[in-house]
Request: fold
Amino acid sequence: MAQFQATASAPVNIACIKYWGKRDTKLILPTNSSLSVTLDQDHLRSTTTSRADPSFEKDRLWLNGKEEDIKDGGRMATCIAEMKRLRKQEVEDKQPNEPQVVSLFFVTYLTLKLTSCPKLSSYHVHIASYNNFPTAAGLASSASGFAALVSSLAQLYALPVSPSTLSLIARQGSGSACRSLYGGFVAWEQGTRPDGQDSLAVQIAPQSHWPDMHALICVVSDDKKGTSSTSGMQRTVETSALLQHRIAHVVPQRMAAISAAIKSRDFDAFAKVTMADSNQFHAVALDTEPPIFYMNDVSRAIIALIVEYNRVSMEKGLGRRAAYTYDAGPNAVIYTLKENVKEIVELVVKYFPQRDGFKDVFGLFGEAGVQGKVVEGFNEAVAKEFEAGAVKGLIHTKIGDGPRALGAEESLLGEDGFPKTLAA
Amino acid sequence: MAQFQATASAPVNIACIKYWGKRDTKLILPTNSSLSVTLDQDHLRSTTTSRADPSFEKDRLWLNGKEEDIKDGGRMATCIAEMKRLRKQEVEDKQPNEPQVVSLFFVTYLTLKLTSCPKLSSYHVHIASYNNFPTAAGLASSASGFAALVSSLAQLYALPVSPSTLSLIARQGSGSACRSLYGGFVAWEQGTRPDGQDSLAVQIAPQSHWPDMHALICVVSDDKKGTSSTSGMQRTVETSALLQHRIAHVVPQRMAAISAAIKSRDFDAFAKVTMADSNQFHAVALDTEPPIFYMNDVSRAIIALIVEYNRVSMEKGLGRRAAYTYDAGPNAVIYTLKENVKEIVELVVKYFPQRDGFKDVFGLFGEAGVQGKVVEGFNEAVAKEFEAGAVKGLIHTKIGDGPRALGAEESLLGEDGFPKTLAA
Reply:
């Protein structure tokens, strides 16, 4: 008996123009377009194996080895159902209903096609997914997770569709997941159709267009349980007096400005828009009743460092060379070009001593390691030096590619169709 | 020789609808109207003595015993010059230029008038001012300070003008000072005239209208030097994409809503608007390039306490019973009605233990003192308990009256025309 199985990995993406607000909560249609950078799967990824088998009694899913409940009508159920529907519509239904003997040649052909095209859409699936970054890191894993889910099913089902089409389905799992279907710089176009068929991801530029775009993730400790983005954004939609102005008058011009900055590789313009939009997202969160805060004093201090770093850089005529951005949590993601990463790591470590040392995956620092220091002309009084642990960790990564098809050796499911036990 | 001297005190005011942004930085004309509650001078006040004397060689001013430089064209010089101009225009110029002998009765009359109306506008002034609250408390003293300055000069000059007229001059010292010319609830109407003559304070309701309106000021420690409001607000005007929407579409309806809430003594509505406008002021500050933060983690925690306190209250059908508001710093001012002050002090002290104990000026707690506890049904997990000192002090006060004329025994100037040495 043939085994129908596929494994894919998908990347994390971090938005420069933020998604905050839905116009349709079931279909996950946003109130504004957004744009992100896809990060490198060599460092951060979700990996998912999907198998379809007539012996399976129901759809089941394990996340990091633990079975999740696939709720009827829930987001996972919707994505799986939509993928099965596409399989049927785009693959199975395009086969004739009944083999018809037209000629000897045709009989042979149809038989072969039918053999290579079983009715997988009618089988239940077992799905195992694994994130290579700890949940404690506070990085949203739903984007890479749903992108990997959809990608592995697309591979399993041999769907002849574009990543944009898959993004329509990933979007219904988690809005920002749609942007993880491409590498490089990716826009989620909000669309206007009530059925959401034009609310999808498009690639603005591939990774190869600006490969020096690096990212430093500062994982910030937080003792406060934050508001979930799902409930928070709808409270903003319902109560913020400023959000509609942002949607109608600010985001459209920022989408155009940052797309132009990316196309011309203008880091200063990219940074200006990225930071302004992070600020504005947190501003509308604060303009919500009751107000929502995601950044804390550590987040604020990191902003002060980047603002001062850029001030020095602009004074030298070099423009902005770093851009902070914050999602629905206190972690900072700092975009910068490869040539500046060393200075920025030194800067962050100076104010936020690291307990575990900096994991120098790009080999920037050699044996001396990170000292913790500021660039010349930097006003050290813009922030105080924090205790070790305020920034729990630093992850250095860069722009990356879209979902990858992985070989059978990467499978997360064993021969028995259940998750393998993974080494920690 | 007669002594021409007057002493006045003036109150602090804390805005519910925030002033943030000038359309004219010289005349201090705001981009939107604002509204505040005047606090009780029995607790927080600036006191100012002004003396005019032909022997003085220049205008001089001492603040808390230390001489300040009255810069040409600066805000203090403008206020003093404007007050002298009013003295001349409203008092001195209304006397005939030359005594004319028309009848015996008239000669006598004019002589008397001239004796009681010396040309004080031509004399230099010595001014001593004193704030009874420490600068370290982080309370803006410029509002009460300029209001006391203008009030003492108005008294010295025997000006037959309304507080609204005086507010035009105090406004040029410090925008929000204009609101300290009245007690109770005070609006600063933005006005439309380029010369600013309609940008003045009007009383919405006197103190006696809602005497149970109390305020608890939480003085919050901060290790970060904040952005001055003068420079901060203009950066917001120049760079925030949201401020213009706030000015044109949000503030006008909030001014109407809070005025109606005050008139009908509807605390729930008053609280809702007050908190929303505090949030929005900090939202547009954050929407500034680079972003401005005034609240810190302690401020955020106090918000979380008030939000939860109100949630419990609303669940009981009592509506909101507390309203936080934050100016350009981390201190919280909590408005509440007298009957709720005890609960709120207990709540704040539970999370923010006090080093020096609570100064119970209204005698609420008796011998047992403050225990630190929450109301029934309160979710204690909304904030963590902080170390003693995170909230440095609590000041309990209430709504108060406008500037007061004080007797000669309160004079801050000695017989020699120089500041008395004040006991600390």
